[in-house]
Request: fold
Amino acid sequence: MEFWDGHLQRGRFLIFWGAMSLEEIQLGKANRLLAALESNLFYREKLDGLGAVESLAEFSEKVPFTTKSELAANQLARPPYGTNLTWPVERYSRFHQTSGTSGQPMTWLDDPEGWDWIRGNWEWVWQKAGVKAGQAAFFPFSFGPFLGFWAGFESATNLGIRAIPAGGLTSENRVKMMARLRPEVLCCTPTYGLRLAEIADDARSLGVQKLIVAGEPGGSLPEVRARLNEAWDAEVIDHHGMTEVGPVTVGDLKNPSQLLIRHESYFCEVIEQDERGVGELVITTLGRHGSPLLRYRTGDLVKPADQPDGFALDGGIIGRADDMVVVRGVNLYPGAVEEVVRSVSGILEYEVLIEEVNAMSEVRLRIEGEGAEELEERLREVFSLRIPVEKVAEGTLERFEMKSKRWRK
Reply:
């Protein structure tokens, strides 16, 4: 089993950034983080007096994992914010909350310095996506407590990108607003990008040149990307982050099936890799001292790939460890099923139903639109499984503005 970490490497190959290697940069930031945590009760107890480390390998060896379940338990025991705060609570000026898609929502605070770090990471996303000052970015959703595009919106204005909020509107009125303002960039989930294109008479006429998509795996999947590109005649750029860690990756313009990692801000590891090289992404936030995460098990399944400046994520976020379903010995990931669905033309929306039959998991799909028989055949070809597909009336299935919840038990 191969283990990847943030120095990174096969055979201890080091990447040099100017006069310093990436490992030296990350190690210096990791030690500054460890020094700051003497006043953080949560990590003071977890680290048990650990001081500076001499290498990232030592960091990985001596620093225990942090899990979402222990963070949630900590906040329940010490409401409302828990003990993972390095400074007095009065110093924190930003409040956010996780989406709660995989359990109890967690609150998250940032001090001004930590929020500047978050915004700086999103500025990197804009720059890697090729968005320029003077262009306009359209945000077609209501800004809630999750971190998401708050940082994207504020970092856009810092870079001179005209940020257009479109919360509190119907999808139809958002399309009308885009037709009037003609923004060059649309920021949304892959699902909602397809939904807006479904509503618009001709999404290609709205002037969008780039779609920055996040919140779901689709942006790195060729079939989903092709469907979005066909609908909008625009470049599709994937991005991923989490409220707990901030913005981490952006799609590689030269190789859009890969996500580039902001290695100077995050020490990333991939653990428990399977025979395909797919494992769980583990992240340490190197610049968020006020509400840090050390060796955080994200639950995101990824496949590392060689890059000149560290490693990238081949295929983006492949799925989540807690979303995978084993059906008759075959591992089904939401992203893999999504790619097959999007390869069949005529499907407007779909959902996956998971049922327990004789103590075994069984899966079936419901779709709106055409192509049920073709989809059944494609699923059989790809997964060597018979997965029933049922056509339902248009308007039956839920539509999503934010993260979709298509897999139902």
In short: The chain is about 30% helix and 25% strand. Residues 325-408 form a domain with the GMP Synthetase; Chain A, domain 3 fold (CATH 3.30.300.30).
